[in-house]
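User: Second chain of the day. Same drill as before.
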Amino acid sequence: MEFSRRDLLGAGIATGALTAGAFAAHAAGLSLGASSSAAQAVGTEQNPLKIGYVPIVDAAPVLIAHERGDFKAQGVHTAAPVLFRSWSSLVEAFIARRVDIIHLLMPMSLYLRYQLRVDAKVLGWNHTNGSALTLDPSLSSMEQLAGRTLAVPSWFSIHNIIVQQRLRAANLRPVIRALPDASRSEVGLIVMSPADMIPALAAKTIAGFAVADPFNAAAHLRSTGRIEQYLGDMWRDHACCATVVHGDIARSGPLAEDIAAALVSASAFTRTERESSAKVLSDSYLPQDARSIAYALAEHEAGSAGEHCAHANWGGNRLDFAPFPYESYTRELVQQFSRTLVDAPTGFLSTLNTESVHSDLVHDGPVRAALSAYGLQAFNMSGFERNEEVSFG
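Assistant: Same format as last time:
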């Protein structure tokens, strides 16, 4: 199939061109499920599992699992995690099989699997909540966004989906590829790298952004931005990023089970040992200042002054680490996506069967088994089903 730089740029992943290696790997069928001896032997001392990540707290479980030795305890050898500056470069590396396991925006996994037709599988969630809508401190209400511009990290992000619904609930009209007209209550949406969002907000280039932490925390601590509302206050315990592996790894049996067990152990540690996890991330993996990372992990749960909170009992301000990928979420995600403006190809969404997409995209057997062995109570789980609670008002 035709696979071009435009595919990634159209998704609003970030800037950056596909490498020749990505083209070659895709053309050779590696990303479409063709197995190789290297893929079959991954996780060994000779061919360690290669981790790729973008520097946000969403990546915590895979990073902590490497740092603490959770992978090693399961007999999985891992190379030092590799930092990628953009979603584009991370996806390129994944397609070229330069990395084996990545954390990826959950909606982007849909794009990767069904638009680009890459044999990618969601093995579990990285975390829940952990994102917010942050505005210019001079704005005291959503209505004041009319005629202004908001930034999101990707068209294929939960941030884009939720913020558009929140704007509509405030009688505002999201627009893309057009200057927003205040008289028509329009709010412009653009894609921007998270690292650029705080400087753009300080320069008044944008009026706000919806993104994962620690960028909301950093804006709050610097008084550059005001947290208007946590996204978890609009979609209870939603997943932002998921752990994605190549299909042959997901279908590998013992290896997938060992990976899932390591991630469950790391997630349990991270959700309870927040301060020490923040130190690990700030010391070794994330370039943001340690105070912002610690605030995002350990202090956001106390809330910040001036935020809107519609559902206090949801705990939407609390970044949590819950690895089980609920089927109800995948179904709701597809439905919400169909109502979202996206400046990229979205025809594939109309071909998806909401009742079967989860079983095709998500390989939850290994994490289900790992959670059962570890104990559901460690994640406040009562079972493997739930009802989605969504409210954008």
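The chain is about 40% helix and 15% strand.

User: Great, on to the next one.
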